[in-house]
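Q: Structure for this?
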Amino acid sequence: MPNSASDAPGSGTGDGAECGPEYDLAVIGAGPAGLAGAVAASELGLSVALLDASGQPGGQYYRHPSPALGATRPEALHHNWPAFADLLRRLAATEVSHLAGHHVWTVVPAADAAGAWDVHAVTGADGDGDRPVRVRARAVLLATGAYERQLPFSGWTLPGVMGAGGAQAMLKSGLVLPGRRVVVAGSGPLLLAVAASLAAAGARVPAVVEASDYLGYARRPGALLSQPDKLVEAAVHGAALLRHRVRLRTRSAVTQVHGSDRVEAVTVSRLDRRWRPVRGSGRRIACEALAVGHGLVPQLELAVGLGCTTRRTVDGTQALALGALQETSVSGVWAAGETGGVGGVQLALTEGELAGLAIAARLRGRAVAGENRRVRELRRRRARLRAFADAMAAVHAPGPGWPQWLDDATEVCRCEEVTAGRIREAVADYGARDARTVKLLTRAGMGWCQGRMCGAAVACLAAPAQAAQPEPPPERRPLAVPLRLGALAALNEPDSPGAAGAGLGPTD
Amino acid sequence: MARDRSPAALVGAATDDAFEITFDGRPVTALPGQSVAAALWAAGILAWRRTRVGGRPRGAFCGIGQCYDCLATVNGRPNRRACLLPARPGDTVTTQEGHGHAELGV
């Protein structure tokens, strides 16, 4: 398995951006879905480039320490590690070009080759390398995963407040904790996994604070009983939490963080069914850090840039609308895993493999549906897992009353330091009715992260009061990662859509 | 037992090649393969940036390169994402003030 662009044959033909060879398939993202897709397609004889921002494969789910840290039991922080180990073994046996440290910023139709795609990336650990790369392929598989949905609350910008997945990512890769006493809060099944791993690694977790109510699962027995392994996983987490004496507080939320320069304590309030805090119910819990998240948001910049159709998910995010064999609405572009709706690792592995098989069949001019037993099996498994994911998303979807825990001084946009008060003013006094208008009036969502952290909250605050769940706009970010002007200039292709269509800055 | 639980013990990490970086002039121990943010966390440092408007302290938030809260000045270069950037022996990390380009006068 060649593992950098320069190892691959034919690289370096210069049009400024270092130009890789032509592949059958470019897979973007080396998490579970991307790995499964790349391996499946390669084993069927396709030439595959696997591009990923990280230095090692695995994505966020299988994030693990760099070999330099010498971990002999990385699986101690993971579920499903054997599936990953198996994928790595199969990957090593293929000719897949694993392009690590490649941050893809746009995918465009090749200007001079009908039916081909150009994948543009910048290199380096944080994309600050000096070498832009272009990879050309006949098909693209988007496996770009998700990031955490955040709902703001008073004090959430204080050092020591972390994304729940972020705290787990730092633990899995860097073997560090944000403090010895960590409250875990928000909503969704990830919280239990985060609390269990923090506790196993030596943190004291005084409470897991869940805004929803697990009784919600009891109202959806069909989807639950179809997934016995998910129940087992939940039981494993539950047992770990009991063992570490972690209290689970349901229908509650952290509504305030205390401390001047870092977290010293949090206030946990009871919520009613609509997630409105119950007055006078606040209880203070001393802690050094808070790990918080409210589910995941599919990462869609590249897909939306290509014009792929999106759909609204059960818990109010946008995901890609996909066909029976994982193809997007744009012919020649497939997607798998969280990009098609957040559903977890088993679904990502299933969809990745399905996409790999479908792409191989398409590029060879064969039909795949119907007669292929493996495809039928994967499609059945996908249907079961999607049903379970939808049931779970419905239980943990944010209730409409959460903005009531924001006071006017609470910062909503972390990058531009825009408060809830200014956003409410834009809505009440200047007639803003959507996130885009709020952004133009207040700069909320216009900073470094381009609204990834505050987007969900701003959409809620901007929506007319009678809208229970506002329709979030598809994330239109012309550049999926920050880019130096030099990387654009190096393209040296004034007529190509890559140079002309990408725009020069985050002006949307 | 509970006292010596640690992330390194949990995964059986052999980490005896520690090296030094500095944060605002003070020495910080880092391990090979750790990000700059992880090395700072290990030293109990949670903030290494001050915001542009309010001058408020910030550190790592999303942990996966999406939020840009962890921007730091590393070896004189501002706006490096500390959660993605591997620590290297001798790195000088300094608190990033504002947008990080104050010394350029722009």
